[in-house]
Amino acid sequence: KQTIKDLLTDYKKVLHHDITVYGWVRAFRSNRFIALNDGSTINNLQVVVDFENFDENIIKNINTAASLKVTGEVVESQGAGQTVELIAKKITILGDNFTEELQSTILQPKKHSLEKLREQAHLRFRTNLFGAVFRVRSAVSFAIHQYFNQNQFFYINTPIVTGADAEGAGEMFGVTNFDLNNIPRNEEGEIDYTQDFFGRKTNLTVSGQLEGETAAMGLGRIYTFGPTFRAENSNTTRHLAEFWMIEPEVAFNNLEDNIDLAEDFLKYVINYCLENCKDDLEFLDKRFEEEQKTKPEKERAKEGLIEKLQNVVAKRFKRVSYTEAIDILLNSKENKKGKFAYPIEAWGADLQSEHERFLVEKHFESPVVLFDYPKDIKAFYMKLNEDNKTVAAMDVLFPGIGEIIGGSEREARLDVLKQKMEEMHVDEHELWWYLDTRKFGSVPHAGFGLGLERLVLFVTGMTNIRDVIPFPRTPKSAEF
Ligand code: ATP
Ligand code: MG
Ligand code: MG
Ligand code: MG
Q1: Beta bridge partners of 318
Q2: Where exactly are the transmembrane stretches of this chain (predicted)?
Q3: What is the pLDDT of residues 101-129, one digit of tens each?
Q4: 57 Cβ contact list (under 8 Å, min separation 6)
């Protein structure tokens, strides 16, 4: 079967032939022109209906959102902006509409707010905007696999149900088969996990990194790409409770190799989209431009969406140490005048997204890689630097997003790692298997985590992370 995209891109082969296409009605103008879309492309196929040749009942039932099978002749189009159209000879209505109910859905052709569209996430796929967003999301995912495949990485699946808390942050959803009305407890009143997941306390993974490291210790270069869960009750436009994370891990890499990898990787994926998602990006670019017009002058983006993507791949990312960044922030007008919600007081402060965005959007006007963070604000597994104060961590910060990637060179020395775990109250016994990687041929190694949705936000120019994942899971929504 031919998709509408196939037809529109390669119509010369079938010009003046009869073909059959399938799709949903986006609009039916003057009882004569159907805009038909099958999801394969942002562009609709114009189907011309010659009234006299059709049963009145069929014409009557060609409503917005109905699904059709259409056979007709491909002809060159006279209309502006389209190459071909289909002169319909036979139309079959596959599924018509419950017209009354349609009125209250987002399929009703008018402008709906993103909030309203979110309430009907199951129907969003039919809209131009979400068609474009999810095609781009698919392209991003595909490009990610392609990049790693071309660079001899192996795709590893790490567990979704796990006993490990990689971040030590306690932001985990427990996994249980307890009868919630009758949770077994011991004499002290504590939950008795021996009666739960085959005798173990388990949770949904917050990161596949620790398991990924063990795989890299045998396979050299690996990456994970899987669902990740964080019970963070943060209602921001950048956080989801369920998101997809990509985590490469590479044996024999140090921090600088890791930063090089992150930069090369991000640029590859963005370039892939520029080359392979032209129509969708042009559509999103226009939408982005329209959206800018509704904002106060000061808040408007300086460049268009496509322009922004082109600029990001063209230049080398700025590489800045945490210490330098803190100096810049401390000396900034914004900090001195109390413009930040969380003013920076001294070296050692954790950076909030307002600070990250200041560095990227105002100060450097470029993506920024920050490295060598204070050890106290980063996880236990990061390599301790010689100064004994910082770790070999790196975050990639993007305009409009803030942190898009977080990574580090890992602590490869068993004694230093154990010391760090003790200081940070990470249970050595629970991670006995992880410590093994430092016992038998430990090597320097490094990796990072990229949140798929944050990259899709960046590429599509959308502003709320709920609008780049088909079914968002947030504290306020787990409806579908
Ligand atoms: P943030 O500071 O934004 O909360 P993080 O430092 O907690 O992020 P990491 O643990 O470093 O996140 O995870 C690696 C990457 O996963 C992040 O750089 C980000 O792209 C993504 N990510 C983290 N938490 C979320 C979330 N709740 N929803 C979507 N993506 C996330
Ligand atoms: Mg976080
Ligand atoms: Mg962070
Ligand atoms: Mg991070």
Answers
A1: 368
A2: none
A3: 888 999 988 899 999 999 999 999 999 99
A4: none
pLDDT in tens, 116-168: 999 999 999 999 999 999 999 999 999 999 999 999 999 999 999 987 666 65
Is the ipTM higher than 0.95? The answer is yes
Torsional class of 244: left (φ above 0), alpha (ψ -120 to 50), beta (otherwise):
beta
Please state, as a whole number, how many other Cβ atoms lie within 10 Å of the Cβ of residue 2: 14
Q: Which of 29, 18, 26, 96 is nearest to 57 (CA)?
A: 96
**Pocket lining: 208 vs ligand 1, CB cutoff 6 Å:** no
Lowest mean pLDDT across 86-95, 97-106, 163-172, 333-342: 163-172
> What residues contact residue 151 under an 8 Å CB cut-off, 6+ apart?
221
Distance from Cα 406 to the centre of ligand 3, integer Å: 7
CA of 206, closest atom in ligand 1: 10
Computed from CA positions of residues 192, 196, 198, 202, in that sequence, does the dihedral angle turn out positive or negative? negative
Tokens at residue 164, please? 């490990």
Q: What pLDDT shows up at residue 196? A: 75
DSSP string, 387-413: TSSEEEEEEEEETTTEEEEEEEEB---
Separation of 462 CA from ligand 3 center, angstroms? 21
Model's pTM, two decimal places? 0.95
Here the tokens at position 75 are: 């002809």
CB 374 within 8 A of CB 348: yes
